[in-house]
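task queued by scheduler; priority normal; single chain, no ligands, no partner chains; default sampling; output format set to structure tokens
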Amino acid sequence: MLTIRRADDRGTTDFDWLYSRHTFSFGDYVDANHHNFRALRVINDDIIAGGGGFPTHPHRDMEILTYVMRGRLEHRDSMGNGTVIGPGEWQKMSAGTGVRHSEFNPSPTEAVHLLQIWVMPERKGLQPEYDQKLFTDADKAGQWRTIASRDGRGGSIRVHQDLVLSARTLKAGESASYDITPGRAVWAHVTKGALELNQEQLGEGDAAAVNENRVTVRATQDGEVLLFDLG
């Protein structure tokens, strides 16, 4: 079975400095039909205006992944990390027993476009952790590049959940497939471009829950797709 989640049907937050689309319930947006997908709890598609950002705030017992697609994001946290995340970079923060952090757009004029993804950990009370890695478009061309996994396979980011997060870039006309192990399910999210997924047309920001044996994609425009393979 394939269930489509259209970009324009997502919840929204709209401030002077932030425009965000929420795939799942988040903050004041509550949607009983889209609260989570297995352990995948949040996908926020954020555009932060120049000089805007989130002041220091706490998190605990959550695996938080941030993917910067355009612009740059400055991060500081109570673990002592201070860094700027650029296009193509992924950041992981295992909040565990508790972390405080802030995120700001260091540019006064250029917006930053990012995905913030929350995954519920397999157990509570973990030691907080931080990681950051760059995956270029070339890394993701012609293969499903593992971005995050429980075992850190292939140099991917290690997360504390039965998750394999893969990304692939495709040129218009290219096709690819991904086999789903029985008992598992996949959430697919198009970050840019357009494609056919199991014969359904998806554009930027569109997503699909896939409870089938295989994901088959064919790019109708140059783009990128993320696959969250969950137990």
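post-processing summary
- The two ends are 16 Å apart (CA to CA).
- Residues 137-140 form the longest helix (4 residues).
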